Amino acid sequence: AIQALAEIRRDQDVWDEVIQLETWEAEYTDDATARAEAYYRAAHTTLDHIGDVEAGIVLFEKAVEAVSEHEAAIRALADLYYMNQQWERSEQHLEFLVDHLSPETQGDELCRFYYRLAYISEKLGDEALALERYLASHAIDPQYLHTLEGLAGALIGAELEMIGLRYIFLICLISPIRVV
């Protein structure tokens, strides 16, 4: 009944009520997976139609509380915390993702997540861990430009200037050059 009412309110673009109904659906179900999915839907509705990032984060967190390995909610939280520069929280979720993704089938995402983890390590002042993570990202995709840039800086910071300069040269080779 709650889902049917939510669908009616969705068709009428009454988003506050849709979110409330999706939240009620989550709160009144005994099934953890259904609860997590309902919170996940409510979080997306909150972000997509209301634009309330903080409320969306709370709902994504509730989805993860219901099912600790709810990958879609963890991805969303990693992105939202990263965008909000909440480095430690983003790092926690990204570490879960890199531990659970397959390099064979999800290499592009894994490369990007390692890059983000490296960037976060730099922000948190751990240059050695940043270098390790840039190297992990580079091992997956040696041409990912963001990783090459970060890796070059990390190598120079680690006093490996010659290797870092080689990566800067490589960046210059693969980046589009514009003549103004």
Report on this model:
By secondary structure, the protein is mostly helical. The protein is 78% helix and 0% strand. The chain has ten helices and no strands. It has helices at 2-11, 15-27, 32-50, 53-66, 71-83, 87-100, 107-123, 127-140, 145-157, 161-174. The protein is elongated and about 65 Å long. The protein starts with a helix and ends in a 6-residue tail after the last helix. 37% of the residues are buried. The mean pLDDT is 87.
Name the average pLDDT.
Answer: 87
Secondary-structure element order, as H and E?
HHHHHHHHHH
The profile of the biggest β sheet is: none
Instruction: Please compute the radius of gyration using only Cα atoms.
Output: 21 Å
How much helix, percentage-wise, in residues?
A: over 70%
Number of strand elements = 0
Output the number of helix runs.
10
What portion of residues belong to β-strands? under 5%
Distance between the termini: 62 Å
Low-pLDDT regions: none
Structural class estimated from helices and strands: mainly alpha
Principal-axes shape call: elongated
Please provide a brief summary of the model.
With 180 residues, the chain is mainly alpha-helical. The protein has ten helices and no strands.
List the helices and strands and how they pair.
Layout: H1 2-11, H2 15-27, H3 32-50, H4 53-66, H5 71-83, H6 87-100, H7 107-123, H8 127-140, H9 145-157, H10 161-174
